[in-house]
Design a protein that fits this description.
The structure is a single chain. This protein has two helices and five strands. It is α+β, with helices and mostly antiparallel strands and about 140 residues long. The protein folds into two domains: about 45 residues; about 60 residues, SH3 type barrels (Roll), CATH 2.30.30. Strands 4-3-2-1-5 form a five-stranded antiparallel sheet, with no helix packed on it. It is rod-shaped and about 105 Å long. The termini are far apart.
Length: about 140
């Protein structure tokens, strides 16, 4: 046996042995480790969810300021004059749907021009009948 190996063996033998902790302490430590890990995972998930919500809010705010609005977004009836020449979908209170480019906006009627196989058709939609307007 080499002298350094002998000294190492002697040093290990001379150190007082430390008794392992009781088994119940092991379970307690494991539970603490698991709970710390669960809390870290939960905190990361909450942070990611908050980040996603913030991103969705930012996209919604940008969509509100974008003109013309992206397809499928609602358009306020007051904003229809800005939509002249753009295509919209108008849903009426009676359940009808009209699609077309906004051509004219009068005090009581909105005129849409829609492309058909034989040419164009104009629809006059009374303002009082408009339930909602979407960009398309």
């Amino acid at each position: 046996m080499s002298p350094s190996l002998f000294l190492l063996a002697f040093a290990l033998a001379a150190t007082p042995g430390v008794a392992p902790p009781p088994a119940r302490d092991d379970e307690q430590r494991i539970e603490e480790l698991v709970s710390v890990e669960k809390q870290a995972v939960q905190a990361a998930a909450e942070a990611k969810e908050q980040e996603q919500v913030a991103l969705e809010q930012k996209v919604e705010e940008e969509a509100k300021t974008q003109f013309p609005p992206p397809p499928g977004y609602p358009v306020a009836i007051e904003d229809l004059p800005r939509m002249m020449g753009y295509y919209v979908l108008i849903r009426t209170k009676g359940g009808g749907v009209r699609r077309g480019a906004v051509v004219e906006i009068a005090k009581d009627v909105v005129v849409l021009r829609a492309r058909h196989a034989s040419g164009y058709a104009e629809f006059k939609v009374p303002r009082r009948d408009i339930a909602s307007v979407e960009s398309i």
